[in-house]
Write a structure and sequence with these properties.
This protein has 336 residues and is α/β, with parallel strands linked by helices. The protein has helices at 3-10, 29-36, 41-45, 48-62, 75-79, 99-103, 107-127, 141-148, 160-165, 167-190, 211-228, 243-251, 264-270, 289-302, 322-334; strands spanning 66-68, 84-87, 91-94, 133-139, 195-200, 233-237, 255-257, 275-277, 308-309. It contains 15 helices and nine strands. The strands form two sheets. The chain has a seven-stranded parallel sheet, sandwiched between helices. The longest helix has 24 residues, at 167-190.
Length: 336
């Protein structure tokens, strides 16, 4: 059994698996080389051989305990007939959401469009050592809705007026999206993934009175689907502060990723029957070695004798020096 599964499913606190969100990607020169020859990001994600190579780059380099597939949460809107473009330094740009296009989608064409992702998983699984886990992922419905409906401004503010105006359409979309997301999880797990992570990167944007409908409930539906199928599941509802406690009580995933704005000590004593993952600010990796070690030690100490997966509070930043990542991993392995 892999270290990650032992901690996540058996709540075995005797080992400390390590992986990083965005471990495959922009901070690695070997990724940038491939990327420079593949200008279309979606096409790169749909190239199963290349995306498998990218998935394994950080494993070969750092011997991490888990590989996360090289893909994107926006592959789902892409497969649901919305145009998705990634422009340099601008982030993703989606074409206007058209409800009729969305409603005219069906499971067969969805699966057909995403088949390269499933192929990437089966290819990678074969190459990965047995003691390592392969993580697949989806975006949580709310985070996808943000992109699909263009609900946030460039300075990351939620457009509440638009949310109100599109209320009916959004409700309808949420329900159908849930079905497609469960299907995508199912297909990825059946292709050989070991764990699924649900990224709710924009959960923290929700006003208190909307968090039940847009965060807890949609995450719970997918987690229930996973549990019914015995698929190990980690949720990452970023930025929800003290609502992490309620999230855990309602959604009940096997693991919860925490961000760097919550107090890890508070988390340690308030979240019950769940494995905790991450927390350390990715910006720490831009500091000197001692600051990195001090911060890592803080998390290791707080979560000693607790089922904990070492990770960060969000993805590795593009400006991270890979040598610092190596040093951090060595430090964790020596001090655990
Ligand atoms: O290593 C890994 O974690 C696996 C690959 C991965 C990517 N995206 C590749 C990627 C994962 C897990 C994601 C998830 C993702 N994508 C999230 C949730 C996690 C988070 O960061 O909050 C979100 C919100 C997205 C949407 C997205 N994709 C954005 C906002 C951007 C542009 C800016 C950015 O963060 O990179 C992307 C593009 C993207 N996805 C890149 C990579 C490597 C950069 C592509 C490039 O080279 O330009």
């Amino acid at each position: 059994m892999s270290k990650l599964i032992k901690v996540l499913m058996n709540k075995d606190s005797s080992c400390l698996p390590i992986w990083f969100m965005r471990q495959a990607g922009r901070y690695l020169p070997e990724f940038r080389k491939i990327r420079s020859n593949n200008k279309n990001f979606i096409k790169l994600c749909l190239n199963a051989k290349l995306s498998s190579t990218i998935t394994l780059q950080p494993i070969d380099k750092f011997d991490l305990d888990a590989a996360i597939i090289f893909s994107d949460i926006l592959m789902v809107p892409y497969a649901l007939n919305q145009e998705v473009n990634f422009e340099k330094d601008k982030g993703p740009i989606l074409s206007n959401f058209k409800i009729d296009d969305f409603l005219s989608c069906d499971a067969r064409s969805f699966k057909f469009k995403l088949q390269p992702v499933y192929d990437l998983i089966s290819i990678t699984k074969k190459k990965l050592k047995k003691d390592k886990s392969l993580i697949c992922f989806i975006g949580a419905p709310w985070t996808l809705i943000i992109y699909m409906f263009g609900l946030k401004s460039e300075d990351n503010k939620l457009n509440l007026d638009l949310l109100e105006r599109k209320k009916k359409e959004i409700k309808l979309t949420l329900d159908k999206l849930n079905d497609y997301l469960c299907l995508h999880v199912d297909n990825q797990m059946k292709s050989g993934a070991d764990v699924v992570q649900i990224f709710d990167s924009w959960a923290g944007m929700l006003p208190e009175e909307k968090i039940d409908d847009f965060c807890f409930e949609p995450n719970a539906k997918i987690v229930n689907f996973c549990k019914k199928n015995n698929y190990p599941v980690i949720c990452f509802p970023k930025g929800i502060n003290n609502n992490y406690k309620k999230f855990n009580e309602i959604v009940k995933p096997n693991g919860i990723g925490i961000d760097f704005n919550v107090d890890p000590e508070w988390i340690r004593f308030n979240l019950k029957d769940v494995c905790i993952q991450g927390g350390m600010n990715p910006r720490t990796l831009l500091l000197d070695d001692d600051s990195i070690y001090r911060e890592a030690e803080k998390y290791i100490k707080i979560f000693k004798d607790y089922p904990y997966i070492f990770n960060l509070g969000h993805g590795l930043l593009p400006e991270t020096n890979p040598d610092k990542v190596k040093k951090l991993i060595n430090f964790i392995r020596e001090n655990n």
